[in-house]
Each structure stands twice: as C-alpha cells, then as structure tokens.
Specification:
Elements lengths: L1 E12 L2 E12 L3 E5 L6 H8 L7 E6 L2 E2 L8 E4 L11 H11 L4 H14 L15 H13 L5 E5 L7 H16 L3 E5 L3 H7 L2 E6 L2 E7 H7 L4 E7 L9 E10 L2 E8 L4 H8 L5 E6 L4 H19 L1
Parallel strand pairs: 3-8, 3-9, 6-7, 7-8
Antiparallel strand pairs: 1-2, 1-4, 4-5, 9-10, 11-13, 11-14, 12-13
Helix pairs in contact: 2-3, 2-4
C-alpha cells in the first residue's frame, strides 16, 4: 500500500520549471529520503504535498484518495525555516498548534505531558521561545509536528542545530513513531542520516526524478565488484579476470590493494591471491549514499549536456 503517490506533477514559476512530470510512490510505513542539490525541486514538491501551493499539472494521492484539505490533519510538517512565535510561551505555543491540528485542550495536555517528560523540557513550559537555544526550539517544533500522531510526517532538514546527543534523541523518536505506524518523508543533505534511517529514496535533480527505489536495491545497482584486500607485500600478477586498480603501503610488510573482479566471485580472487601472498583481510567496497548521490547527479548533468 502506498501512503503517497505523486503522478506526473509539474510546477512552473515564471521562467523556472521547479518540477517536470515527477512521479514518486511512498510506501506505507516507510522512511523515505527526498534528496537532491539546492534548487532541485524538493521544497516545491513538499509545498504541493502539504497544500501550501498546488501543482500546475498532475495529481497527488494520499492513501489512494485525491489530495484534499482534510488530509492536512493527518500530516505533520517540520519546515526548514522554523515557524515558532518568539514572544509566546512554550506551553501556550504547543497548545495552540495542537488545537490547530484538531486536538481538544484536554487531549493536547495529556499528550504534551508525555512529550515534555520524554524530552526533559518541563522547566521550559512558561519560557518564551526567544529565551531558548536553537536546539531547544527545534525540540519544541518537533513536538508540535508530531503531537497529533499524524500518519505522514514530513521533515525538512530536521537535525539542523542539534548537538549529537539531541540528534540521537530525535532519531530514536523517529524510529519509534515509524514502528507505531507513521510514514516519514525526509528532505535532507545529510547522507549519513539517509544511510541510518531511510529504507527508500528519491533523488531529484534539475526538476526531474533521476533515481528512485529501495535503498538496498539502489546500493546493489551501484556495486562495482571492487574489493579492498590487505595482504603481504608482493608483486601481484593477476589473470585477465581481475584488474588491479591501485596499491598503497599501509604498514611494514603490508599493502592495501583495490581489485575489480571482471569475471568470477570473491572466492576466485582469493584462490588467485593465496598462493602468492598472505591475506589479512578482504572486503567489498560498496558505494555510500553520498557516492551514489554524486554519481547520479553528475550522470544526469552529463545526459542533459548531451541532449542540449
């Protein structure tokens, strides 16, 4: 089942096309990374999903229904540009946002009691937002985003301003809420966050989707069958089934080589190396999400240059 489907969505601003026939499917219960360089179209897409703006063409389906104003109450949105009222007290502000999302005062207070204890912010209740640090304000806005237990939670650069301890706290809450049934869309530049949390991604570049799918499948797609081998120093003479890409001394009597398998499997590589060298370790060099991001963007730019 899909929580969200984006179907042929196009958005034009004056002379700039922000989105060009974008198609995405966000599975129910997933943590979905929305990636792309600055200006790629991510924020435009989020604004359409949250109904801040509308698409010029195409449609958005939420749980199989055409997007409509009632769906806003089933979503939570944490924008990159934070939207707290600096002169309001924390407690007053959290109650205000909760009521906007349809909670009664008694329900909101019941839920807030749990959250303020969980985030250890009970002493902030009567403080004005402007008295809080940026990280503390982030905690308050995160609570406001998820308090009504939305089915779809959209987070735009949610870890900005957090120290490692509070970043881990937010990460743990995201995982907990996801296990309880909430679907997440992450817009982020932090590839380590994608590696840790996301099970699906879409990469948008120059208003188009250039890569989408399950993270595991995408990482398999970008595997190059290249292995790092630490072995005793020797003059490696490999058969045509293997290509020695480089070798670097790492310790006295030890060298690290990158070897690409053209034909065969890692066991075949070991069979070739063991008679001539002592093997200390062998591991596959799997592209990180950061590597995949850079490769995909560069390939997309090269394709557009050829077309132009």
């Amino acid at each position: 089942m899909q929580s969200l489907q984006i179907i042929n969505v196009t958005k034009q601003y004056a002379h700039h096309k922000a989105l060009d026939r974008v198609n995405l499917s966000v599975p129910h219960g997933s943590i979905y990374g929305l990636l792309g360089p600055n200006g790629a179209g991510k924020t435009s897409l989020i604004r359409i999903i949250t109904q801040i703006t509308g698409a010029d063409e195409g449609e958005v389906l939420f749980k199989g229904e055409k997007l409509n104003p009632s769906h806003i109450y089933r979503m939570g949105y944490l924008p990159e540009e934070r939207g707290l009222y600096k002169k309001m007290e924390v407690g007053e502000q959290l109650l205000f946002f909760a009521r906007l999302k349809g909670l009664s005062r008694s329900d909101a207070m019941h839920k807030l009691k749990d959250w303020v204890e969980r985030f250890e912010i009970k002493n902030w209740w009567t403080k004005k937002v402007e008295e809080l640090s940026k990280g503390m304000q982030q905690k308050v806005q995160f609570i406001a985003t998820v308090l009504h237990q939305p089915e779809l939670i959209i987070l735009d650069e949610p870890f900005t301003g957090f120290d490692p301890i509070n970043a881990n706290l937010i990460r743990d809450e995201i995982i907990r809420l996801n296990k309880e049934g909430s679907t997440f869309i992450f817009s982020t530049h932090r590839m380590e966050t994608v590696e840790q949390l996301c099970d699906h991604i879409a990469l948008i570049n120059k208003s188009k989707v250039v890569l989408e799918g399950e993270v595991k499948q995408i990482k398999n797609q970008f595997r190059t069958q290249t292995y790092e081998v630490e072995h005793s120093i020797c003059n490696l003479q490999l058969s045509p089934s293997f290509v020695l890409k480089n070798s670097t001394p790492v310790d006295e009597g030890l060298i690290r080589s990158e070897i690409k398998i053209i034909q065969g499997i890692p066991n075949d590589l070991l069979k070739e190396l063991i008679p001539v060298s002592h093997i200390h370790s062998l591991r596959e060099i799997v592209p990180s999400m950061n590597d995949i991001f850079i490769i995909s963007v560069n390939q997309n730019l090269a394709t557009q240059s050829v077309v132009a």
